Amino acid sequence: MALRHFLTLLDLSPSELKDIIDDAIKQKAALTTRTSYEPFRNRVLGMIFEKSSTRTRVSFEAGMSQLGGSAIFLSPRDTQLGRGEPIEDSARVLSRMVDMIMIRTFEHEKIERFAAYSKVPVINALTDSYHPCQLLADIQTYVEHRGSPQGKTVTWIGDGNNMCHSYINAARLCDFELRIACPEGFDPDPALVAANKDRIQIFRSPKEAVKGSDWVVTDVWASMGQEDEQREREARFNGYQVNHELMSNAHSDAVFMHCLPAHRGEEVSHELMEDEKVAVVWDEAENRLHAQKALMVFLANQ
Length: 302
Ligand code: CP
Ligand code: NVA
Prior knowledge:
The chain is of the alpha/beta class and 302 residues long. Helix content is 41%, strand content 14%. It is globular. 47% of the residues are buried. The mean pLDDT is 98.
């Protein structure tokens, strides 16, 4: 048995990613008929959250319980991690007690250090740099609504943040073209852009970027940890709202995604969020559950 972690999408090969998405779709169908599937009986997932969460916490906790296991929620407020116990020590102790660990934290380097000392699979549930679990759900959602993303044109509008970085990795794994429209000063990591320059293009005009796109996606302008920049960012991202007018430049069949939580009236209009013909955000949120269940089964079976 090989120990595999999921810190970024690049921890999977394209065919492993496809298998996980296929399994997520199967598990979703099985759940509607309440077909019992409990490969995780007596298994425990440790969930470390150093940032807030609704979707990630509930999807992992509900998912683990549906698979026959259980989950323990750990916050820095009531663990020794929050009082400065070294990551390396916490990783060694926790991984002797639970079967898998998911972490939501700030610096990506922290989760890499944790994984290096863990005896069990570690899953990135969001860092400042990446949010790969969200991409599993987004890819599943695109596949369910429109089929394979291979060869499609995907446009990211907004901050070159953790979600944008994971879209760059997804472009590579799923073989799609990624256009990124962001104001100057908010570009994604230049090293990541350089490493994927064959399939990425940076735009300053959201309208130019979405022309003919099949899939349009955005995220909040100020991520967790950037709350004190909210005002300044609102000014800098003026003109980057995704709304029906912007979407009218995309392919007539284009879908809109947002990882949520959304700030209506800022990065997305209220009307677009409520337009279920275009916005597939509720399926996208639900798919966190199915995609992560498939991911956990995959990691446990390595
Ligand atoms: N999209 C997402 O990760 O949501 P939460 O912050 O609610 O977990
Ligand atoms: N970019 C956002 C994603 C939230 C799910 C953040 O990091 O806050």
